[in-house]
Amino acid sequence: MPLDWNDLRFVLETVRQGGISGAARALRVNHATVARRITAAEAAMGTRLFDRHASGYRPTEAGLEAARSAEQMEAASHDLGRRIGAKDQALSGSLTITAPQLLFERALAPILRQFADRYPAIELKVLAANRELNLSRMEADVAFRISDTPGDTLVGRRVTAQNATVYVGRDQAARLRDDPALPLDWVRFAHWPGPPEVIKQNWPNRRVRMTVDDMYAAIAAVRENIGATRMPCFLGDPDPLMERLPNVPLLPYRSLWVLAHPDLAKSAKVSAFTDFAAREFAALRPLFEGAAA
């Protein structure tokens, strides 16, 4: 029985994800398909690639070797795809863009509409994801990243600096104006160390009312007057249900970058889009820097 090279993708993802459940999610298939393709690869190679335990699949030495070979094949395939893609100078075909969800919702969507109007032959595919997709593995062509250190494996430009400050719901702000002695109710981020130092100094009387794990939840909490929290100015300033907390300056926040893999950066589609996006975000700098309020 000859080896189907596609079966090795299932072996690789099972090793990579630590089991068939993760592999099924990554490959967007069901568990049975992953198990069947692994069994087919084992039959073709005449050896066991995984030990089956109650706790899940554990790769054997042969399985790890097969995964390493599959990873090399995958890298070669992606490298070939990028090099061929770099030669594509047509302003047509698909272009995949990844960006954080809130950036897409609040600022990027109008820019994409304008780009699509200007280049109707380019089919835009948007992956609105807060996790960083791997451009080397061709999960996307262009990435918007909010970071001070976007890494040295991608090329691009910083399209705008960013500032943040502390925002509070309209009703909570009115209560604090009426009675400055009230404690400042605070919405805490689970992955941030605590309030900015200026909050500790200017509002020593405060209490944590809620802990959240993402910005969508924080925005909802501020809108409902549960508490104040820090967020980027491009999210807080345009929101009619919140306002800036008094006596809090602008706080530095991570910059916004538009990035591509070096092999694809000079292709016509990628170059046209990154240039267009950089110009449009330049016009939005007052919003991102907190100067538009």
UniProtKB/TrEMBL annotation:
<dbReference type="GO" id="GO:0043565">
    <property type="term" value="F:sequence-specific DNA binding"/>
</dbReference>
<dbReference type="InterPro" id="IPR036388">
    <property type="entry name" value="WH-like_DNA-bd_sf"/>
</dbReference>
<dbReference type="InterPro" id="IPR000847">
    <property type="entry name" value="LysR_HTH_N"/>
</dbReference>
<protein>
    <submittedName>
        <fullName>LysR family transcriptional regulator</fullName>
    </submittedName>
</protein>
<keyword id="KW-0238">DNA-binding</keyword>
<dbReference type="GO" id="GO:0006351">
    <property type="term" value="P:DNA-templated transcription"/>
</dbReference>
<dbReference type="InterPro" id="IPR005119">
    <property type="entry name" value="LysR_subst-bd"/>
</dbReference>
<dbReference type="Pfam" id="PF03466">
    <property type="entry name" value="LysR_substrate"/>
</dbReference>
<keyword id="KW-0804">Transcription</keyword>
<dbReference type="GO" id="GO:0003700">
    <property type="term" value="F:DNA-binding transcription factor activity"/>
</dbReference>
<dbReference type="Pfam" id="PF00126">
    <property type="entry name" value="HTH_1"/>
</dbReference>
<dbReference type="InterPro" id="IPR058163">
    <property type="entry name" value="LysR-type_TF_proteobact-type"/>
</dbReference>
<feature type="domain" description="HTH lysR-type">
    <location>
        <begin position="3"/>
        <end position="60"/>
    </location>
</feature>
<comment type="similarity">
    <text>Belongs to the LysR transcriptional regulatory family.</text>
</comment>
<dbReference type="InterPro" id="IPR036390">
    <property type="entry name" value="WH_DNA-bd_sf"/>
</dbReference>
<keyword id="KW-0805">Transcription regulation</keyword>
